[in-house]
Design a protein that fits this description.
Helices cover about 45% and strands about 15% of the residues of chain A. Chain A has 37 helices and 31 strands.
Chain lengths: ~950, ~950
């Protein structure tokens, strides 16, 4: 039986997951895995476009494509592979340059190569007595699984099929081969719709009760072939060529053309792969794993791709073709079985595996076929691997001396480290749940990890249940800062609206908690206490489970697996190498002592952003904050006294809270620096929503509700109306608040300094750095620095104590970046707030853009990346470069960091390294990611 | 009688008005008026700090101060002035450098100068028989009227007073002089509160029934002097020095110190005057206009300061002191009277006037005193003048050969041109109204000009009344785009909220209509139809008058004076010179044919911004626009067809409207270019307000209103909720709309091109330039250019017609500026939208910032200028420079313009010139301003 073992459907699977888009595949990266080129044979004279596997002149992966390169390399290692040759990517590029004319000499070179192949195989293309059949396969330098075309069994025609039937004594098999070739050639080369063939075939199968054409008899196959030929002629006015040379030319050009197929273009756009590389075409003699009982087909990994353990791992299916292995129609056995069935073949595979690992310096994924006891390797490539396996392989291969530490650090994708650290759903349990129909909806995977818990709709309720020891999943239509305490209490978050940069998503990633957002079919109804999708209802109190990577929401419990960094010894080791290699400091954004503790555990060297306002949202403080805000209105712009008593009274209470908070943080930090940002958000964020109160008032008025309630609500409404802004993002917030209500910043500054003095007096070092947000003009910073220093000096004078401190600013508005020289005159450090800087540089409001147009922009390729995830180097990055240059011009030693979301994104970290920043600051769970990314940036 | 004619209270008045802040006084400008220095005498040896008037060695205004320079120049011309000398600004600066120690040799030099003065006058300081009295006067290089100190009658003491009494035979006069000196010295030099003296004096006056101390008898004056001396001693523990040398030193240092008085610092900050110049001190012998009947005092202008006419203009008061002239206690006669009373003095004044005009090349404001038939000039300086006079003087002085055209162009402040072109209130009628108590409130002068009309509260009503021929003033709490048709119909606009860059202000200035905003005490109640301020109520339908420069709102009618450019022949001439001198093109922002016509009349060379959406707000179209928007929701992102029928139907109707609009505009333009911007604002701006509909729905629900109404409103509310944005400024607008709803931009493009073809087929040239708003990424522009060109080519193919056109973009987001090289690949022109660019660069929302913090920022000096009025060169300007460089790198011939508010601001125009833009575009009424400012920029 003659089957090819590597059908196109079995190309490596595209890994899914929210973070995948960031992992740009670049040729340079793959090349670094290429062993040094050997001095050696130059290609045969006149071979400009074609390289045979055994005489490839050390050509690169770029020229030969991944498949051709692997086959050539294996040939050069003396490993058993089928004969064949590769038409280079240069031929493909020449074809496109020549407006789809095959370059001069291409066909004559291909003919020479075919003749050589025939000579080696003792077979001839189109010879019914000893036919050479080949596969014609695409292979770009960068793997693009399933994106481009392949034609198998090429060389067959009626005469050849008859010959095979005659010689094999199995006409059905021969005609099945022929039939498959007609369909594949018709589709790929001649452009016939696949459905035209499947229509015919399915009718025959239904009629005969067979599962596949290989089970049909010779007569039926003859009849289908004839119908297939009719299908091709009807659709194209032409027939499938009988001449193998013509077949070959058609197939080669079709593979070339498939480089610019719509799906290939989309794929490259999506993964950021260049369109300029072209594809190579490998022409490979076919071998057959279903020849007899000493034949078979298999796949093996040189190390366990799930755990990284160094053992041969894979499957083998005896007397079978590759398609069967993939389709799951038969159950393959573990590859270790082969050691009993064909020990010599097994040990040959083990030897090959070792040799290939050594050759490529990485774990390999190898496809092979055994034909009558003879082993053929059909493909080798770097093995896909789980995050855990990636880390373990990298560390162990270094220990084995296979690769250097530098290579190990480059080998692991930083996002894989993140995935390793979050709890995840037990995948077998999840699969079971899918089978049982418990999948309720699929939204956007907004923050990876798995969680299972009681469904809750209210932040206070979530907190209450969590305090009682329950695990809860919080579901909201969308979240706001008022929900944060509930998000802190929950193990997972679900929203029906918003994208992967919505409030829910950003906060969840910051907390390292799984989150699913924007589940389109999902309704979240907090009032009635249910979620619903496609008619399926889950009510409050029921268990749900979510997968924040896939976006899946399940009914019922699913076991979660809980990792811990200390148990990840390979990661701990890898990250210690990263720390040696990196130049950038890695700090963390953390608002609470527990976050600070987590950050330090993950290796943070300081706190780059402590958002004091998050402390304001704690429920027991929120009332006090509201009293303060409503009273503050009368105190605007009055630097001292004369001000509403409630205002100062509530500030005094808040000062007590904040002092205690900061003390706790300084104690955890043990002398590491803490950048504490003064109040930033618009005040109305702390108040009930204008629309809600408006509704209340109108209702009360219409219904004639109680007079006092109406009066109170109306008064509140008036206040809210005064605070309301058309564009709050660009309104009264940040240092504008600090200048309008000086007492607020003074209170916060006193709390920070008092806390620092208290902890310092216990003998522990403290390094408070006070950060002023939203500066757009040097004068704002100048005035506030003066005010805050006056407050601090007054405190020092009163108490007779003192402590070292710094006062600096966020650079989060374009003007701040453009005038950084002036701002650096009074700011002792800069921290780039790239979230806001991206908003103003692009003129995008995160709150609005995502739902309204940003996702579409990404889909349509108008934006290559989401600038809120990956720092936009041409715009925002340009401003950072300008600010860095200007800031250092004024103060050569000014400390520069970044504290936006981008501080945890590998590509953005690379930019920060190149730009010469001093540190990046990110959420605690991304600290390990940042350490590795910083090391990779330093290694270049 | 001995009085000095130039009391400090009579220094030139500070001109008020909304545009004044822009007119930075710079020394360089004043210096350019200085005639070339003469080669001549060097100062006497050892005169390092002091220059006598007749031996000033050609020292500059910078060294001598304005007053000292004028006196010295007049001396050198041989004009009659009192003797004296000047202590230079360098002495003042040395004093401050030396930590308030008078520089070495200062006093010895002053003593020498006094001795020389005594010798010339035949009088001696402190000599009772022949006393020299002097005034000690401040005088900075730049005039700072009333800001610094002066001491008169210095040199008097008890002995001298007795001597004067004896010799003049008028002891009361002598003691009055002495009394005044004690008070002035006590206040200015010794820091005694003025109220301490006035308390004493007022009691005496009340007791005696006299109006001033000069009417008291000798004994009373003696008594008051004694009480004054007590006041000084009680307050300071010291006595007013009797020694004239001591008096002099004290006065000189006090004048120095007054350079850094709080009010002087504030004044310089306000007018942008450098703090580094210091003041000079002039010591001048006193002369007396009330010596006898052949004495007197007067002020004259060399040309009429109101009309500019070339005639001597001024007032004279015989036998009087300067204070009387100022106080209005006596009525002065016209200066022409003098030609009868003292013809030789009059003709001497005429000769002096001519000489001084020639010397300074400008109209002069001259103060003089006649002492017993002898003329003394006391001061000369450039005359303040009305806008009309400024223009006429500049043109006529050029025609007379007094100055060059270049000087004439520099002489007129561009904002004066603007004031000349808007209607204004008849000032005598306005004064009458003030006296009658008809002034209702004073707000911010947001757009200059005067208007009188019926008070109206509703835009539709305003339009209806205007159509009936009524003149209406529209009053609103604040305005929104929905009010624009009412603003168009009104002759003036009043709002109770918002500042000088609020929507109302910006639109009014664009329309050249008077506007008063943010009248704090004013309540505007459209529902009940009244405005109210301090209890005064004006109801709907009553006449009101407003002055958009002063911010005054009057009850009742006040005559307005209507200018026209063609009647302003001097201005027409001046602007024609400006056109010859300028390099920048001056285009206009205009949305309607009538605006285009006005713009051309004012000299616009093209239309730089035609906002198509303003056409959408016309009432008869708004319904259609709303239907389109509500239907559009279902059509988002579907490039063709499959879309709601209502959407396309309403677009088709709008296309008809727009085509007609554009045709009309092209016809007026007669081949000049027109930059037409595609739809920009967020769609919800065209819809009723979310809050209003929410109130309706809640009310209907609570009250159980009609089911269909409730259903319709609820549906509308749902739509509005979907369209609602947290930060609409940064949301779905501009080209984001064009990409989401391609049919809208296609409709507009077709309308533009069809209109162009229609007009072109009539034989008239057309130059449509289609402008895409809010681009932040090159890909947006690339895609839209492709789409729009496809639409245009389809139109050309269908109709067989064609026309030249361009497609370009606004640069109004920081990222667009930073990536202008990429955008220039597909944009054929750039227009800097500096309104939005300022918002995003600063992170200020205009709608919010002004009321919430911007005004306070300006008051507190945190911002030196309102960046929405004067282009912020360090931030926004930097981006414009970057974009200019990058844009030209890609396309050396790309046309660059500016179309924000700044296009009509002189300082911003100077920046545009320096940066190398091709044109500025501003509202039609500011086109003459821009022409002049562009000329001034070119002249440097």
């Amino acid at each position: 039986m003659l089957y090819n073992v590597v059908p196109s459907a079995k190309e490596e699977a595209v890994p899914n997951g929210v973070f995948h888009r960031r992992n740009r595949v670049t040729l340079a990266q793959e090349d670094s895995e290429t062993p040094p080129e050997e001095e050696g044979a130059k290609p045969e004279a006149g071979h400009r476009w074609v390289r045979s596997f055994h005489d490839y002149a050390g050509e690169s992966r770029e020229v030969l494509g991944g498949k051709g390169y692997g086959l050539a390399e294996m040939t050069s290692l003396g490993l058993p592979i089928p004969e064949g040759f590769t038409i280079t990517t240069q031929a493909c590029l020449a074809y496109f340059r020549g407006e789809k004319q095959a370059p001069e000499d291409l066909w004559s070179e291909v003919e020479l190569a075919i003749r050589a192949l025939e000579a080696r195989r003792g077979q001839r293309l189109g010879d019914p007595e000893s036919p050479l059949l080949v596969s014609v396969r695409s292979g770009a330098a960068v793997s693009m699984p399933g994106m481009m075309d392949t034609v198998l069994n090429l060389g067959i025609n009626r005469g050849v099929a008859e010959g095979i039937a005659r010689r094999s004594g199995n006409p059905a098999f021969a005609y099945d081969l022929y039939l498959r070739f007609i369909q594949m050639y018709g589709e790929v080369v001649m452009g016939v719709e696949s459905s035209h063939f499947s229509g015919v075939r399915d009718e025959w199968l239904a009629h005969s009760g067979a599962a596949s054409t290989s089970q049909l008899d010779f007569e039926s196959l003859e009849a289908i072939i004839s119908e297939y030929q009719g299908v091709v002629f009807d659709a194209t006015g032409r027939e499938v060529p009988e001449d193998p040379e013509v077949q070959l030319r058609g197939a080669v050009l079709s593979v070339f053309d498939s480089w610019y197929s719509a799906r290939a273009i989309d794929y490259r756009n999506h993964y950021g792969i260049s369109h300029d590389m072209g594809t190579a075409v490998s022409v490979v003699a076919m071998v057959y794993g279903n020849m007899d009982y000493r034949s078979g087909t298999g796949v093996c990994f040189t190390r366990n791709p799930a755990t990284g353990e160094r053992t041969l791992y894979g499957e083998y299916l005896a007397n079978a073709q590759g398609e069967e292995l993939v389709s799951g129609a038969s159950t393959p056995s573990d590859i270790s079985e082969l050691s009993r069935e064909m020990p010599e073949v097994y040990s040959q595979i083990v030897d090959c595996a070792q040799l290939l690992e050594k050759r490529f310096g990485d774990a390999q994924d190898i496809e092979f076929t055994v034909e009558s006891g003879k082993l053929y390797l059909l493909q080798t490539r770097a093995a896909q691997r789980s995050p855990r396996a990636a880390v373990r392989m990298a560390v162990e291969m270094t220990d084995e001396g296979l690769i250097s530490r530098e290579q190990a650090l480059k080998r692991v994708n930083p996002d894989q480290v993140y995935n390793l650290l979050v709890p995840r759903l037990d995948q077998s349990a999840a699969e079971e749940a899918r089978v049982e129909g418990r999948l309720v909806a699929v939204g956007l995977g907004a923050s990876p990890g798995g969680a299972t818990g009681r469904l809750t709709f209210n932040a206070d309720e979530a907190q209450r249940l969590a305090n009682e020891g329950a695990r809860v999943v919080l579901a909201r239509p969308e979240t706001s800062p008022e929900d944060v305490h509930g998000m802190l209490a929950a193990v997972g978050i679900v929203t029906s609206r918003g994208g992967t940069t919505s409030h829910a998503a950003v906060v969840a990633r910051g907390l390292g908690k799984p989150c699913v957002t924007g589940a389109e079919t999902l309704t979240v109804n907090p009032e009635r206490g249910y979620i619903m999708s496609d008619g399926v209802v889950v009510t409050e109190g029921e268990d749900v489970s979510i997968d924040g990577a896939t976006g899946e929401i399940f009914r019922g419990e699913i076991t979660t697996l809980q990792p811990s960094i200390s148990s990840e010894k390979h990661m701990v080791e890898l990250l210690s190498w990263a720390d040696d290699a990196k130049r950038l400091g890695v700090w963390a954004n953390a608002d609470y002592p527990r976050d600070v503790r987590a950050a330090l555990e993950f290796g943070a060297e300081g706190i780059g952003l402590c958002r004091t306002e998050h402390m304001f949202f704690e429920p027991e403080r929120l009332d006090m904050v509201r009293t303060m805000i409503l009273a503050a209105h009368d105190c605007a712009d009055s630097p001292e006294g004369e001000c509403d008593r409630d205002f100062h009274a509530s500030l005094a209470v808040l000062e007590g809270y904040q002092t205690a908070d900061f003390e706790a943080i300084f104690r955890v930090l043990e002398g590491r620096p803490a950048v504490i940002r003064l109040l930033d958000p618009p005040l109305h964020e702390f108040l009930p929503s204008f629309v809600d109160i408006l509704e209340d008032v109108v209702e009360l008025r219409a219904a004639g509700g109680p007079v006092e309630t109406l009066a109170a609500k109306t008064a509140l409404l008036t206040h809210l109306e005064e605070l309301r802004e058309v564009n709050p993002m660009l309104g009264l917030r940040g240092c504008r608040l600090g200048l309008k209500f000086p007492a607020i910043y003074e209170m916060q500054t006193r709390a920070i300094i008092a806390a620092a003095c208290n902890v310092s007096s216990e003998g522990m070092a403290v390094h408070p750095e006070i950060m002023v947000p939203l500066v757009s003009h040097g004068n704002e910073m100048k005035l506030l620095r003066k005010n805050l220093e006056a407050t601090i000096n007054a405190y020092f004078d009163e108490t007779g104590r003192s402590v070292e401190y710094k006062i600096g600013t966020m650079i989060e508005l374009p003007r701040a970046a453009l005038t950084a020289d002036e701002i650096a005159e009074t700011a002792q450090f800069f921290s780039f707030g790239t979230n806001d800087l991206t908003q103003t540089t692009y003129g995008y409001s995160r709150d609005d853009a995502e739902g309204k147009f940003l996702m579409k922009y990404l889909e349509r390729g108008i934006l290559p990346e989401d600038p809120f995830q990956e720092l936009d180097r041409s715009g925002v990055g340009r401003l950072i470069e300008i600010a860095t240059r200007l800031g250092r011009k004024t103060d050569a030693n000014i400390i520069l960091g970044i504290c936006g979301e981008h501080g945890g994104d590998p590509s953005s970290i690379e930019f920060c390294h190149k730009t010469g920043l001093d540190y990046v600051s990110c959420s605690p769970y991304r600290v390990p990611v940042a350490r590795l990314a910083a090391a990779q940036a330093a290694l270049g």
